Amino acid sequence: MAGVTVDTRHWIGGERLDSAATFTDRSPIDGTPLAEIARGGAEEARAAVAAARAAFPGWAATPPPERARLLHAIADGVDARLEDLAAVETADNGALLRSHRRGVMPRAAHNLRFFADRLLALGHDDFTTRGHTNHVTWDPAGPAALITPWNAPLMLATWKIGPALAAGDPVVLKPAEWTPLTASLFADITAEAGLPPGVFNVLQGYGAEAGEPLVSDADIRRVSFTGSVPTARRIARAAAEHLVPTSFELGGKSPLLVFADADLDLAADLAVEQYDNAGQVCLAATRLLVEEPVRDAFLERFLHRARALVQGDPREEATGIGPTIHPRHLERVDGFVRRALAAGATALLGGGPHTELTGRTGGAYYRPTLLAGVAQDSEIVQEEVFGPVLTLQTFTTEDEAVALANGTRFGLAATLATGDRDRADRVAARLVAGTVWTNCFFVRDLAAPFGGSRASGMGREGGDWSFDFYCDLKNTVTAPKGWQHHG
């Protein structure tokens, strides 16, 4: 596709392996089949884990500088194939090609470099207890199962692959079945960089058939998953059987609070930004909470910007919003909107699929949508839609704003727009969220902790927090006496 050849078999133990069955991968841009992908199951999962287990002693014993060097070499390979990776991922998941070229793929390489460098800086000052020395180390834990989503496939995979490999853990990556292709290209890049066989493996397939036996394997020592709450519950039950630590980054229903003292042009820009990647972003602030006196002024600015978005082929430079990932997902998104409208909501923007565009292209396009007249306890406010659908509510007091913002089971992120620094600090302190942005959105430093509260996840990744997860921390306590001195 796009002039790039992708091997659609598994990558296990440094070799390409077939499965007896395959599944079809289609592009959300126009519905065309892209490839037939190896459909793994329990047998392939066992083989991948066995390869990782066999590679573990050698990889764990590899000195950190060498691990870091290999991660930098893989990052160099990502940079060298940036255009190929961007073209393939755009075809596979429908996100904007320009975003893949300018932001997403460079970030994938940066993820690897960051954790390579962080490994070499990892450490804790020794400290003493009644004259005894305490020395803390981060020991490799064992094979890690990484299960990644379809909305930013390679970038989110490297967010997990980087620290896992740096920590000394061999990896079995199970990419989402709707976006399997860049994981396979990445496997080629790791081999070209000289990564030993079995240290990185790719298991293709469906969650129930390949993912479940993977996370249930007794030889897996870490499981990191980004995706839905129901799937996380199943993974947690499987991992609990062997007391395997898990890290979950799950759904979100994040608020954007717009106070009357905010820069309304900035607030409108932030709100329209939530349509990025057709709204298929876990962090997206899909609930617009606007102080009542500025509702109309904010809404005028928002609608002006949102209506200017060009929806279409994500490979075109002018396109501002592409398709949703799959016709089945488009139906799910539309179901939420139709039920909300039936319950009394009003569509101030959009409100359904882009039927003309979908009919002409065969893709899965949903119009940017804004719904008003929604109750706090309604499904559209409480449940993650994961599409280009925002809701609008108003508040009159700071306490009411905080109550609305915290009034779901999620707690992944929150965004504030205000001109009052004291208010920003005061409100941020009261919000239940893993990340709070004030007068900005999606500014992320890999050194910062990232994760969600409540149903939005468990654990934190980034910086040393990633190493805390992928390693077994050890404290060695040494007495000050009792030594025999040898000349």
From TrEMBL:
<dbReference type="Pfam" id="PF00171">
    <property type="entry name" value="Aldedh"/>
</dbReference>
<protein>
    <submittedName>
        <fullName>Betaine-aldehyde dehydrogenase</fullName>
    </submittedName>
</protein>
<dbReference type="InterPro" id="IPR016161">
    <property type="entry name" value="Ald_DH/histidinol_DH"/>
</dbReference>
<comment type="similarity">
    <text>Belongs to the aldehyde dehydrogenase family.</text>
</comment>
<dbReference type="InterPro" id="IPR016162">
    <property type="entry name" value="Ald_DH_N"/>
</dbReference>
<dbReference type="InterPro" id="IPR016160">
    <property type="entry name" value="Ald_DH_CS_CYS"/>
</dbReference>
<dbReference type="InterPro" id="IPR029510">
    <property type="entry name" value="Ald_DH_CS_GLU"/>
</dbReference>
<dbReference type="InterPro" id="IPR016163">
    <property type="entry name" value="Ald_DH_C"/>
</dbReference>
<keyword id="KW-0560">Oxidoreductase</keyword>
<feature type="domain" description="Aldehyde dehydrogenase">
    <location>
        <begin position="21"/>
        <end position="475"/>
    </location>
</feature>
<feature type="active site">
    <location>
        <position position="249"/>
    </location>
</feature>
<dbReference type="InterPro" id="IPR015590">
    <property type="entry name" value="Aldehyde_DH_dom"/>
</dbReference>
